[in-house]
Amino acid sequence: ERADALPRDLAGRRLVISAGGTREPLDPVRFLGNRSSGKQGYALARLAAQRGADVTLVAGAVAGLDDPAAVDVVRVQTAQQMGDAVAKHAVGADAVIMSAAVADFRPAAFASSKIKKGAGEPDSVALTKNDDILAGLVRSRNDGALSADTVIVGFAAETGDEQGDVLTYARAKLARKGCDLLVVNAVGDGKAFEVDHNDGWLLAADGSETALAHGSKALMASRVLDALRPLLPPPS
Ligand code: CTP
Ligand code: CA
């Protein structure tokens, strides 16, 4: 879509969007990471800015993407850094979209010098849980640290398994996280990661569920912003 043909329906709104994967260091040369490319978050940031929003993009590791025009980019590496940056910029924001792939765990210890191969068998890597940034935002909104009007959007990548399908897991995740919208990507079989197309569902806290037919990440971004916009309070 041509930027000059887009609605300016987010003018005057401040959005915080996280994107990419976090990297959890093990020693100075190694980290635990994930396959997130950052493409979906960057597409959201670019489009939100084109629709008039003032956008802060909190970017973890991304696959050589150009910074979107007219977007304030804050670079982070770890989940803890991402959590700090998101919490800081969320204050006064109209909406926060957590499209980043935040590592659930980090190595429990950071070795300040390179871990050597040595002669014997390797040690296992002990892990510890990272804070859930999205759940923390919802908590902050509940306890008044963030405005009650702040719209909070989560993402979920689900494969489904013997215990439940993608939608079953996604509904449970929306309820558990307490966010307003959950963008659900069906993953596995080469879907969603490192590719230009996604498909899945858009679940809202009011129980509405919209299928997202296969489309580009730019199209996904426009559907997400279209669903978010009516949740924003009337402009002040
Ligand atoms: N998320 C977050 N902080 C974390 C982990 C996840 O903010 N430490 C956010 C992601 O950015 C995403 C949403 O939570 O918006 C869902 O992430 P997901 O990994 O699907 O959910 P988890 O609760 O970590 O559940 P699991 O990985 O076990 O499916
Ligand atoms: Ca996770």
User: Main sheet, how many strands, which sense, barrel?
Assistant: 8 strands, mixed
Q: Which CATH architecture is right? A: 3-Layer(aba) Sandwich
Averaged pLDDT, please? 93
The shape is: globular
Q: What Rg is obtained from the alpha carbons, in whole angstroms?
A: 18 Å
Give the total of domains: 1
C-alpha termini separation: 29 Å
Number of helices: 5
Order of strands side by side in the largest beta sheet?
Answer: 5-4-1-6-9-10-11-12
The hetero molecules present are: cytidine-5'-triphosphate, calcium ion
Q: List the helices and strands in order.
A: EEEHEEHEEEHEHEEEH
| Spans where pLDDT lies below 50 across 5 or more residues | none
Tell me the fraction of residues in β-strands, as a range: 25-35%
Structural class, from helix and strand content?
A: alpha/beta
Q: What's the total count of β strands?
A: 12
> Any idea what the CATH superfamily is called?
CoaB-like
Which CATH class is shown? Alpha Beta
CATH topology: Rossmann fold
Helix content: 10-25%
Keywords: Decarboxylase, Flavoprotein, FMN, Ligase, Lyase, Magnesium, Metal-binding, Multifunctional enzyme
EC number: 4.1.1.36, 6.3.2.5
Pathway: Cofactor biosynthesis; coenzyme A biosynthesis; CoA from (R)-pantothenate: step 3/5; Cofactor biosynthesis; coenzyme A biosynthesis; CoA from (R)-pantothenate: step 2/5
Protein name: Coenzyme A biosynthesis bifunctional protein CoaBC
